[in-house]
Amino acid sequence: MIFLKLIVTNLRRHRIRSFISVAGIAFSVAAMLTVVTILQGAIGMFSGILSSDSEIIVFERNVSDLFFSNVPAAAVAEIAAWPMVSHADPVLFGIVSSTDHPIITCFGVTAADARIRKAAWIAGDRLAFAKNADDVVLGERAAEFLGAKLDDHVPIGHGVFHVIGILKTANGFEDGGVFMPLSSAQSFFHKEGASSVITIKLRNKDDAASFKSKVKAAFPNLIGLEDAEFTRSYSQFRILKATAWAVGGCGLLLGGLGVANTMIMSVFTRIREVAILRVCGFSNTQIAAMIFGESAVVSLLGALLGVLIGTCLLLALKLVPALHGYVDVAIQPVVMLIVILLALLTGIAGALYPAFYAMRIRAVEALRFE
Amino acid sequence: MNLSIAQTGPQKRIVLLVEDVWKSYDDGAIAVLKGVDFEAAEGQTVALCGPSGCGKSTLLHLFGGLDSPDRGRVSVNGTEVNRHRNLLRLLRHEVGFVFQLHNLIPDLTLAENCLIPTVAAGIDHRTAQERLHELAERTGLTDRLGHRIQKLSGGERQRTALCRALMNKPKILLADEPTGSLDEHTSGAVFELLLDIVATEGVTLVMATHDRALAARCDRLLEMHDGRIHERVSA
User: Fold this and answer.
1) Which end of chain A is more exposed for a tag (fewer CB within 10 A), N or C?
2) Cβ neighbours of A272 in B, within 8 Å
3) Is A198 found in the same domain as A107?
4) Residue B113 above 90 pLDDT?
5) A193 and A265 share one domain
6) Do the chains contact at B91 and A278, CB–CB below 8 Å?
7) Chain B contacts of A279, Cβ < 8 Å?
8) What is the residue range of A331's domain?
9) Are both A79 and A134 inside the same structural domain?
10) Residue B228 β-bridge partners
């Protein structure tokens, strides 16, 4: 109890300094949590697009980005005919732009695609999809920012398209995207006869391994991956995740330097107190534990405050109309745990030198001058 | 070498033994102790007198293991204190320090300050509390246990420091000008208390002081100058 009080006492003694340290850690944690959660959400949404009513994705082997993947129509037809396959949906991804909107995701799909079949249609008739080459269906948010209604003609990229439907979907990318008939998209993006991926639904999920082997044998240039497997291994996702953690880590490092500064000052201003504790029989371990304890309290308070700030920030971002669907506030417990642990580790790392310094204080020197 | 041997009597056990201790500062430029030999028996009260800078405090620090001699040996209860592995046990169980300034932690209460040595030594809460109340009663501080140090008078602070020094029942109490910062009246009262407690507890008191009247009331009065203990005066 007294040991805890010795830890807390010093924090209370220098309230402003302690608060600044806690705030430093809190903002770092909030930044890390926000960046990681947003990117995890984005990755989750992109994975959601791929895994819509399917469990395997087939794409060109060794491409760095699915936008560059080319799967020939012949492969789609052959795979769709395999007995183990329930259905195979080719999807062509593209990026187009329109006035004031430099990036709009475009999905080239067939009328049989689950995204069209199973979506909630706000306006239009799904049976009308793919009847004409210039027909498009807009996600609800895309319709909103393009200012388009049913039967309007909207400029997208180098063409003008007829809006034959508006969809509502929980997926931010789809909600802000444009759905074109596959053949129109192939023509628009100059990828005639090709798609970016094939999303596969098997009749029996247990056939996943044999399906992948069969793809490898029949089409050496293609690769089939289960959804979870794809999410783990896709280089773009890995780069995004690494970037998010690196950005957050840099923030946390700055917070850790703040803690280090506070702890150094804390030790410098109570050299005499440390000397008294030594005279009372405190060991090096006990002195160090006191310093580390102080930094752990700062880090823990900062981490908790940071989680609170981060959550509020994510909720606020979710309310921004332009980001609707893109920001996922569902903070994963494992992310939260990692962020809190990192904050604690950073705090402890920041206390290493101060603890070392405190351990070297010689009582006789500190007490000599009264 | 000037040896000062106390008349401890055959029944008294030697608890503090100092053999040919030398100590200097600034790489030998300032020689403070020049071959001090000294011993103190259990329950004895010893006053160290001498001018400022003669080495009284240095000697006390060496007795308590806070500093190491350049040469020579200091032993408490037969154990050499200069060895690091003995130091913690020495500070936790064998010696207690009282300084001229109380050296209490201002943000803690009187009770919490007194309990610090028990935390260091890992003494259980109940035992520590019993000891605290026993000492507080003896020093008249029972009503002040929950008060912060800033709320205490100078005499109360020094009595608190005395309680803290005695919490773990040390064999030796090392007091460096314990009444030096107090007025004459309070100084006398604190010193009376000090003598009373060390007598009751059977603690050996080694006290550095400028106050010859107080020093004269100790069992032994030792004069220090020129880095040596020169004379022995039996009180």
Assistant:
1) N
2) 103
3) yes
4) yes
5) no
6) yes
7) 64, 66, 91, 97, 103
8) 2-46+237-368
9) yes
10) B225
pLDDT tens digits, residue range A99-113? 777 778 899 999 888
Does residue A15 sit at the B interface (CB-CB below 8 Å)?
A: no
Residues 281-320 of A with CB under 8 A from B: 281-283, 286
CA–CA separation, B45 and A306 (whole Å): 59
Contact flag A279-B97 (C-beta cutoff 8 Å): yes
* Nearest by CB: B107 against A9, A276, A283: A9
How is the beta sheet containing B71-76 ordered, strand by strand?
A: B30-41, B14-25, B71-76, B79-80
| Structural domain spans, chain B | 14-102+168-234
Structural domain count of chain A: 2
Contact B117 A364 (CB under 8 A): no
A81 touches chain B (CB under 8 A): no
> By percentage, how much of chain A surpasses pLDDT 70?
96
User: Could you tell me how far CA A299 lies from the centroid of its own chain?
Assistant: 24
pTM greater than 0.90? no
> Mind listing the pLDDT tens digit for each residue in A38-93?
887 777 777 777 767 788 999 999 887 888 899 999 999 999 999 999 989 999 99
Residues A144 and A188 in one domain: yes
Q: Do A370 and B168 touch (CB under 8 A)?
A: no
The residue from A185, A220, A255 where one domain ends is A220
Which of A1, A3, A278, A279 should we substitute to test contact with B (largest number of B Cβ atoms within 10 Å)? Answer: A279
Measured between alpha carbons, how far apart are the two ends of chain A, in Å?
Answer: 29
CA distance A273 to chain B (A): 7
ipTM entry: 0.88
Residue A342 pLDDT level (bands cut at 50, 70, 90): confident
Identify all chain B residues contacting A364, using CB atoms and an 8 Å cutoff.
61, 66-67
Q: Do A178 and A135 belong together in one domain?
A: yes
φ, ψ of residue A352 in degrees (nearest 5): -60, -55
Residue A282: closest CA among chain B residues belongs to which residue? B120
Tell me the C-alpha to C-alpha distance, in Å, between residue A293 and each of A4, A8, A176, A297: 8, 9, 49, 6
In angstroms, the separation between the Cα of residue B92 and the nearest Cα of chain A is: 5
Level-2 CATH architecture, domain B14-102+168-234? 3-Layer(aba) Sandwich (3.40)
Tokens of B152: 């205490």
DSSP secondary structure string for all residues of B108-121: SBHHHHHHHHHHHH
What SS3 class is residue B70?
A: coil
Q: Do residue A67 and residue A208 come from a single domain?
A: yes
What distance in Å separates residue A357's CA from the closest CA in chain B?
18
The residues, ordered by sequence, that sit 6+ positions from B192 with a Cβ below 8 Å of its Cβ are none
